[in-house]
Amino acid sequence: MIEQLNQTLFLLINATPASPEWLIKLAIFIANELINIVPMLIAILWLWGQPRLMTAQRAVVIKTAMAILISVSLSWIIGHAFPHDRPFVTGFGYNFLHHAPDDSFPSDHGTVIFTFALAFWCWHRVWSGVVLFAIGCAIAWSRVYLGVHWPLDMLGGLLVGLCSCLLAQMLWNGFGARIYARLHQVYRFCFALLIRKGWVRD
Predict the structure, then answer these.
(1) Contact (Cβ atoms closer than 8 angstroms) between residue 190 and residue 182
(2) What CA–CA distance (Å, rounded) separates 121 from 146?
(3) Is the whole-model pTM more than 0.85?
(4) Hey, which end of the chain has fewer CB within 10 Å, N or C?
(5) How far is it, in rounded angstroms, from Cα 193 to Cα 73?
(6) What is the pLDDT tens value at each position of the chain, 202 positions in all?
């Protein structure tokens, strides 16, 4: 029954040869490029900001990175424990985006972007989490629309992201201060010249 629901939802979303070319191109851009907001925002929050906010920002960055590492690991484990073919591998629907025929559940893109959105929702600002969640939904739609994922692959990514944020918070509660101190020490050593020049924050 779940598989039937998965297929039904996929057919409702998946593009066809009759779909507008501009919409397919937009979906390809969203599917390939919007995920880059993750490393970009992590770098911005760590390197720049008001001095009084830097400690809090960097704590968000570290917890978010921890959550993403956990979520990617969980995604890999689940994908190998419960392999599921992508739609184009089974010849189901239409495919408009080149992709390796590896396991589809849960979606790696969905896992990362939803983990990122939930992390910002919990640890940064609600509004930033909402914006990132909307971007996550756009990425999820695009990858189903283009035929490289099933809808439930994206739901799986969301659930993995939620669990990963909870686990990251538990780790932070126990080891956060030590992790922060060690990473800040490494950062100050590696970026000493840029810090002295004032190009990035101490």
Answers:
(1) no
(2) 28
(3) yes
(4) N
(5) 34
(6) 888 999 999 999 999 999 999 999 999 999 999 999 999 999 999 999 998 999 999 999 999 999 999 999 999 999 999 888 899 898 899 999 988 888 899 999 999 999 999 999 999 999 999 999 999 999 999 999 999 999 999 999 999 999 999 999 999 999 999 999 999 999 999 999 999 999 999 8
DSSP codes, 142-166: HHHHTTSS-HHHHHHHHHHHHHHHH
Residues 6+ apart with CB under 8 A from 168: 63, 64, 66, 67, 70, 119
Token pair 């035929």 is found at 147
Specify the DSSP class assigned to residue 134: H
DSSP designation for 52: G
Please compute Rg for the chain using Cα positions: 19
Q: Is residue 165 within 8 Å of residue 122, measured between CB atoms?
A: yes
